[in-house]
Design brief:
eight-stranded mixed β-sheet; Carbamate kinase; 10 helices; globular; four-stranded mixed β-sheet
């Protein structure tokens, strides 16, 4: 565990548009012994400026002595690479039907992405380590369904590898892929992978970075907090609909199995991670009991 950091030291790197620096110390105390899992996907991974902003926030958490674990997606880049090869994509309930050719593209794309994120962190003078199914697999999976092909659901998390990496003061960066008992590689929905990891680690917070501000009500106003008990009604009233339904169900599963809170935040906004962790108002939509 890193030593206590003074306000004067924090001032040296605290961003101008981040939350009030005077409140930072109390949040450091709140999260110092906790784990924060951050899933990054969507536009954040395709826009270089947004990716740099994301990396900057991760580095700040590290400098403050907080523990973060990154799970990244790669949907837009996978889509682009499949289109280049003229491989058509079909989706069932938001999950990509993954045949053998598609799986090869998914694997290659995610491994390249994983390497790029790790290298971007290292350039900021922080140690990071990539995890994927080819090297240091973390997710043991079973097939989601025959219909979906090589899409897996986590059945066990090899969290000891992550804990060891954290003990070595290194930031883990995970690809959402896993192996079954026969060492066959499977694609995993990134939200599902992040939620499974957060449950296994009993993380204090799970942040899901998306392309939206959070969950909106019928008047298009942001809902700042949702209780698991309310989710069924929100789906019936079509407040939560389409692709947000599986995302919210993943969130509820996490908070009902050891995660203190899951937050859907807008990765397009500068310092959305810092605004969630270091302010009372937070950012996006919080799901907790």
């Amino acid at each position: 565990m890193s030593k206590e950091i003074s306000l004067e030291e924090i001032k040296q790197f605290w961003p101008e548009k981040a939350p009030d620096i005077k409140n930072v110390s109390k949040y450091i105390s709140k999260y110092r012994k906790e784990k924060i899992v951050i899933k990054c996907g969507g536009n954040v991974l395709t826009d270089l400026q947004l990716l740099n902003n994301f990396i900057d926030d991760i580095i700040i958490l590290k400098k403050l002595g907080l523990t973060s674990i990154i799970v990244h997606g790669g949907g837009p880049r996978i889509k682009k690479n499949l289109e280049k090869l003229k491989i058509k994509s079909t989706f069932i309930n938001g999950l990509r039907v993954t045949d053998k050719k598609t799986m090869e593209v998914v694997k290659k794309t995610l491994e390249e992405f994983n390497y790029e994120i790790v290298e971007a962190i290292k350039k900021k003078l922080c140690e990071a380590k990539g995890f994927n199914a080819s090297k240091d697999n973390i997710f043991l999976v079973s097939q989601e369904s025959k219909e979906l092909g090589y899409v897996g659901k986590p059945i066990k998390i090899l969290k000891e590898k992550i804990v060891k990496t954290l003990d070595e003061n290194i930031i883990p960066v995970l690809s959402p892929v896993g192996l079954d008992e026969e060492n066959q590689i499977y694609n995993i929905n990134a939200d599902t992978a992040a939620c499974s990891l957060a449950k296994s680690l009993k993380s204090r917070r799970l942040l899901l970075m998306t392309n939206v501000e959070g969950v909106y009500d019928l008047d298009k106003k942001l809902i700042t907090e949702i209780k698991p008990i309310d989710v069924k009604n929100l789906i019936e009233w079509k407040v939560i609909k389409e692709g947000m339904i599986p995302k919210i169900k993943n969130c509820v599963d996490a908070v009902e199995n050891g995660v203190r809170g899951v937050v859907i935040i807008d990765g397009r906004k500068t310092h959305s991670i810092l605004n969630e962790i270091f302010s009372d108002s937070g950012a996006g939509t919080l799901i907790r009991k």
